[in-house]
């Protein structure tokens, strides 16, 4: 459940009828655990987080004239062990403060990058979660090592209206990125009209040579929502990388089937090297608006598969949002 603390405007006796601006704070979170076998994992956990379990706080204060102050901080933790996901970063999910108005939103801190928000994540029917995650394909992670879902020390602008949404982000250079480092930046946008949705993204991580451009689209036919994704870029060695993903989500009963097939390739080799090739299928059953039971199966292949690891992954999990 969302807990909202909304103090009323207080009349201060010493200032007559003057009042303080209204503000609100929301406490939210998620606990998600599954019994699983992971594909391509040396340390294969039987009980694991299906998606990032989290505890967060977000708030807004009305400053008048259509201007608002906003903040959000989000802690990520491993619900299976009660430990935090990042050894040195408590607010690993988000840590931002900023201003917003009808002209958009500007925040500073640790924030999700727009290419991931508007193109990469939405293209994956599993939302880059569970054992069936397509993160290696949609983010090019198997080839572009320093690409990231979110960047610290960043400034991010975003805007959304009438089905159109876009964002831009620039961050400080990572101190550990080496002499060839530069400021990471990211651009992304999407447009939705009726059953049709399209998105684009461009991400330039801290290495001087790597970059990742993506385009995705989906159409909801009612009986199923069908999507496609294409990614193109270069890694730190200046080698051409490409990926594709096709997907479908079909509502069945009080839930939905999800399925995907995708590949990530290094196009610079004499014969195209398939780094990642995976097919996945899953089903979500909605016990309520906040609680979901899910099951997924994944078959993993490609040169990135570690010898001796499982080719097939599966999970059966329970996710509760509050």
Automatic annotation (TrEMBL):
- Porin domain location is 11-297
The record's SUPFAM superfamilies line, in alphabetical order, gives: Porins
Topology in the lipid bilayer: Multi-pass membrane protein
Primary location class: membrane
Give the signal peptide range.
Answer: 1-21
TM segment ranges:
none
Keyword set includes Coiled coil? no
Top-level taxon of origin: Bacteria
The keyword Ribonucleoprotein is annotated on this UniProt entry: no
The UniProt keyword set, sorted, is: Cell outer membrane, Ion transport, Membrane, Porin, Signal, Transmembrane, Transmembrane beta strand, Transport
Gene3D superfamilies xrefs: Porin
Compartments where found? Cell outer membrane
PANTHER family (alphabetical): MAJOR OUTER MEMBRANE PROTEIN P.IA, PROTEIN YDDL-RELATED
Q: How does it assemble?
A: Homotrimer.
Query: In its UniProt entry, what is this protein called?
Result: Porin
Q: Organism source for this protein?
A: Ideonella margarita
């Amino acid at each position: 459940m969302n807990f909202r603390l909304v103090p009323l405007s207080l009349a201060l006796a010493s200032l007559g009828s003057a009042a303080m601006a209204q503000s609100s704070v929301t406490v939210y979170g998620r606990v998600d655990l599954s019994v699983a076998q992971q594909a391509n994992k040396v340390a294969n956990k039987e009980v694991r987080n299906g998606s990032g379990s989290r505890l967060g706080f977000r708030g807004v204060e009305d400053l008048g004239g259509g201007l608002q102050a906003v903040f959000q901080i989000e802690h990520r933790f491993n619900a299976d062990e009660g430990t935090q996901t990042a050894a040195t970063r408590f607010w690993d999910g988000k840590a931002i403060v900023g201003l917003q108005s009808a002209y958009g939103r500007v925040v500073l801190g640790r924030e999700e990058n727009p290419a991931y928000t508007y193109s990469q994540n939405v293209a994956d029917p599993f939302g880059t979660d569970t054992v069936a995650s397509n993160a290696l394909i949609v983010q090019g992670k198997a080839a572009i090592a320093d690409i990231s879902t979110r960047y610290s020390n960043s400034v991010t602008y975003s805007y959304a209206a009438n089905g159109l949404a876009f964002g831009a982000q620039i961050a400080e250079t990572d101190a550990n990125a080496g002499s060839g480092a530069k400021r990471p930046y990211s651009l992304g946008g999407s447009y939705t009209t009726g059953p049709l949705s399209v998105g684009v993204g461009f991400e330039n991580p801290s290495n001087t040579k790597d970059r990742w451009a993506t385009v995705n689209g989906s159409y909801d036919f009612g009986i199923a929502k069908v999507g496609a994704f294409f990614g193109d870029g270069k890694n730190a060695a200046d080698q051409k990388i490409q990926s594709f993903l096709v997907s479908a989500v079909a509502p069945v009963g009080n839930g939905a089937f999800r399925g995907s097939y995708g590949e990530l390739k290094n196009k610079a080799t004499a014969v195209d090297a398939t780094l990642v090739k995976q097919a996945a299928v899953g089903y979500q059953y909605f016990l309520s608006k906040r609680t979901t039971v899910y099951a997924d199966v994944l078959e993993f292949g490609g040169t990135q598969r570690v010898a001796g690891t499982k080719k097939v992954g599966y999970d059966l999990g329970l996710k509760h949002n509050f």
